[in-house]
Amino acid sequence: HEDDGYGKPRLYSHLVNLEVRKNAPNRPCFMLLMGYLGNDTWKMAAEEADILAVDAYPSDVGGIEKGLALQAERLTEMRAVLGRDKPYVLVPELIQDPGKLKPMTPVESVAECYMGIIQGARGILFFRNYHPADPACSRNLWDGPKRFSRELFGPDGLAKLLLPPSKAVDIVGEAGIVKC
After folding, report:
1. Sign of CA dihedral 160, 162, 164, 167
2. CA-to-CA dists, residue 45 to 38, 40, 77, 125, 152, angstroms
3. Angle at CA of residue 175, ends 169 and 179, nearest 5°
4. How far, in Å, CA of 27 to CA of 21, rounded?
């Protein structure tokens, strides 16, 4: 992240979003806000994107306790600025630099997911900076996300208690095919 523009709204992002909106007006725009410059970050990004995301990684701030506190802080700030109308998601850390930094344990990954849900995130997208086939990556890399999915959506899942009712959203691509 040696880029001088890291974490700052960029003219390039703005222009790309305008171009996408012009050529594919029904395609939602997702924006991950790396870095943080105060609540104005969320206000400016909300004007550009349909769905916002934040990443706050425990390995960047000295461990899981500080990482969870930072995630809660960022998500609380987002909710305070955006309200409940603009969806936002948490991008928790799964693994950042195998061989140098230890990956999140399955329990830590589950804790990150619950932090996101409790703080109002409408989705979880995991970050991993390396291919799972990389020998430096843990073989149990996805155990935490799998466990969280079972706890939330399994037969006795907590989703019905923790999450608002969902509705399916079809995004139709240029070829008339449903994308999701």
Report:
1. negative
2. 12, 8, 13, 18, 30
3. 30
4. 7
**Can you give the pTM of this predicted structure?**
0.76
Q: Count Cβ neighbours within 10 Å for each residue of 10-39 and write b for 16 or more, e otherwise.
A: eeebeeebeeeeeeeeeeebebebeebeee
Residue 58 identity: P
Residue type, 49: A
Q: What residue ranges in 78-132 does DSSP mark as E strands?
A: 88-90, 93-95, 127-128
Q: Which amino acid is it at 52?
A: L
Instruction: Give the DSSP H or E segment for 32.
Output: strand 30-33
What digits encode the pLDDT tens for the residues 60-91?
A: 788 889 989 999 998 998 888 888 888 889 98
The structure tokens 């001088």 sit at: 4
